[in-house]
Design a protein that fits this description.
Elements (H helix, E strand, L loop, with lengths): L7 H13 L5 E7 L11 H4 L4 E7 L6 H13 L3 E4 L7 H11 L1 H9 L6 E6 L6 H9 L17 E6 L2 E5 L11 H9 L10 H15 L1 H8 L8 H12 L10 H13 L15
Parallel strand pairs: 1-2, 1-4, 2-3, 4-6
Antiparallel strand pairs: 5-6
Organism: Christensenella hongkongensis
Family: Belongs to the TRAFAC class YlqF/YawG GTPase family. MTG1 subfamily.
GO molecular function: GTP binding; GTPase activity
Length: about 280
Amino acid sequence: MDIQWYPGHMTKARRQLKDKLKMVDLVIEVLDARAPKSSLNPDFDDVFSNKTRFYILNKADLADENITKNWISYFREKGISAVSFSALRGNTQQLKKSIIDCAEGILQRYRDKGMNKTLRCMVAGIPNVGKSAILNRLSGEKKLKEGNKPGVTRSLQWAKIDQYLEIMDTPGLLWPKFKDQKTGAVVALIGSVKLDILDEESLAFYLIGLLKETAPRLLAERYQLSNLDRNDFEILEDICKARGFLLKGGVYDTERGAKTILDEFKNGKLGRISLEKPERC
């Protein structure tokens, strides 16, 4: 299963992003808390090499809480400030304070020069990690277009959070080629590539395999599965049987079953599941 998706607008957006960097003090990178490693664009290490970086692990309400805490500690040990957040129900005042605290050294340099300057940030990340949703929550109104699919934001836009904080929203950016099959599959599972380029049944088999390792109890409970010691195709058939997904002649509608498990995972209906752990765990 070779998943690659790098539409033309991303090349243009990457150039625009680099051109605007001189205007910002701090870069806020949004990751998906269910897969922080795979949702971290490796190209950003080069693009943001001269900027202070701050990580938000968004969609924390969909991820395993303890694993998310391990990721926060992991990034902080590497010298990068990081917090978990949910754009649906997170504490925006606490998030704003964390952003300001991360930039305290920058702001102090301005104060030393007698300047009470507005902090200007840029938010970046791969598609569909919730960048615009976070900015809308921080500003207290829906200023930016958002949606649970990739490619909603296509241009750079400023959002004024308050008198002393402004944040530039940017389009979701992938990198030109995923280094391995697993990364591409995980990025697809969290909804960061368009579904119409995917073989959804193959992706569902991959998800079932991951869930057997990371969340077997939640998988079994959601679909009334009594035996997980079966291959991924047989488990998908069991899911179809539990849901009554049948075609003429009693054949299981595995296409519908695949769409169902992919959608229910993406929207958190299986429970709080993390697909990745820090290397030390």
